[in-house]
Amino acid sequence: MKRRSPQPRNARAISAIWVVIALPVVIMMAWIAIEIGSVLRSANQAKLAADAIALAAAARYGDGTEAAVQEAFAAAGFCRAPNGPVQILVAEGPGGGGDLYFGTWDESSLSFAPDLAEGGPAAEVTVRFAPGHPNGAVRLLISGLFDSGGVTLERTSVAVYNPPKHLTSLLLPDPALAFVSMGGTAAVRAKGGVSVASQGSSSVQLTEGASMNIAILRAAGTMDGSLGSRISGSVESSATVPEDPYLGITMPVFDTNEATGIAHTGAGTLHVMPGIHEALSFNSGTIVLDPGMHQFTGGIELSGDAVLQLDQALVQLQDGSGLQLRDDASITGTSLGGAGDWVGFCFIQGGAGSAWSVTDNASIIVDGRCYAPGVAATFGDAASVRMEEAVFRSLTMFGASRLRLSSDIEAIRLPVVPGRARLVR
Asked: What confidence score (pLDDT) does residue 101 get?
């Protein structure tokens, strides 16, 4: 009788032992794979959320920071975090803060720079999944076993606003005399574009570190091809430039015989009723122009720390008279209210040649429009000028001067080309 070999039984026993040994390893590897998958899935969710929120915020830049922030909150609500809808924490101010910053995007260095003072067309969003954050941390099984707070994840995206090209914020409508000349680190930032009616080949010159953050630079003549590197938007040569939309509106008439001087001691605050005034020059204190129209038969010259405040007021300068601000002088305030052709304007002046100059640390910061088609405007040094829209004869900027235009000239909107945002990081 043959005896059975014990090997099959021994092999089965050995296999069972290996199964017992290998099973925990397999389970452990599967567990780790699941945990890694959970982290990667959460990281992808955070990045997709950051992309969506940045695009939403940047796309609303043209409507102001408050609208952009609200759009970011709305987009975040459609994204998921460990604790529910994604939440972002945002500080108040034009530049944002916390999880959402507004600033500028440098295409050459592919870098984002926040601008807390003025904000900008680029939005940087960071979505955070972390302990202590309203979004919560990524919870893993091992977190419960070892009383860990969870995994921290942060993903950041940057999107840039591409403004619509049908808007014009600065119009230089004189075919013979219109030009733009910028040097130093002077900069123009506008909701819409800049339109220059001159047919000349050198009507637009940007040198050194000068730049324009605008939708489009449009000129009737030809332009240097290198300008594109200094313009954030499009450059259109030999373009059809819109005509002056205010040319047919009658300017209020001056009666110089009724002009009176403004007696200001230079101390405290002086309120001035609407009317016809002589030239104004002062270097300290504050003059408030009360609601209504204020016509000046001569120029306005501010120096020192003088402040001219417009309280729903319109300043009309007589043809040929100038506006000069230097040192730390400033003009602030709001535009004319009520009804009439010039409602919404802060400054108007006829077509005769005039010179406006804002230099040193002087500033014009007003909520209103400016119509001065005969003015050669010069902004230099560290001067800052902010208004809604402007019509000038020419624009010269140097030093670190800044011009910001927050709106557009509605009457000359071209066929609509929608604005949009694009992801850059």
From this structure: 94
Phi-psi region of 176 (alpha: psi -120 to 50; beta: other; left: phi over 0): alpha
Number of domains in the chain: 2
- What's the pLDDT at 10? 64
**Cβ count near 391 (within 10 Å):** 26
Q: What is the pLDDT of residue 15?
A: 64
Residue 380 lies in a domain: yes
What does the alpha-carbon distance between residue 197 and residue 79 come to, in Å, rounded to a whole number? 47
Find the helix or strand (DSSP H, E) in which 158 lies: strand 153-162
Instruction: Please report the pLDDT score of residue 36 as a whole number.
Output: 64
For the residues of 98-128, what is the DSSP string, one character each?
BTEEEEEEETTTTEEEE-TTT--SEEEEEEE
Q: Choose the final residue of a domain: 116, 147, 162.
A: 162
> 393 and 315, same structural domain?
yes
- Residue 277 pLDDT: 96
Q: Report the alpha-carbon distance of residue 256 to residue 233 in Å, rounded.
A: 45
- Whether residues 151 and 234 share a domain: the answer is no
Q: How far apart are CA 349 and CA 322, in angstroms?
A: 10
- Strands (E) located in 267-383: 269-272, 275-277, 280-282, 286-289, 292-296, 300-302, 307-310, 313-317, 323-325, 330-334, 345-349, 354-358, 363-367, 369-371, 375-379
Residue 40, classed as helix, strand or coil, is: helix
Select from 347, 299, 300 the least CA-distant residue to 321: 299
Sign of CA dihedral 252, 310, 410, 220: positive
Q: What is the DSSP letter of 376?
A: E
Contacts of 86 (CB under 8 A, 6+ apart): 49, 53, 76, 77, 79, 80, 127, 135
Residues paired with residue 358 on neighbouring β-strands, in sequence order: 325, 379
Please report the pLDDT score of residue 285 as a whole number: 95
Residues of the chain with pLDDT under 50: 1, 144-146
Can you give the residue range of the structural domain that contains 194? 168-423
Q: Are 319 and 374 in contact (CB under 8 A)?
A: yes
Task: Enter the tokens of residue 149.
Answer: 């707070």
102 contact partners, CB below 8 Å, separation of at least 6: 57, 61, 65, 68, 94, 95, 96, 114, 115, 119, 120, 121, 122, 123, 124
**pLDDT the model gives residue 145:** 47
- Mark which of 115, 133, 162 sits at the end of a domain: 162
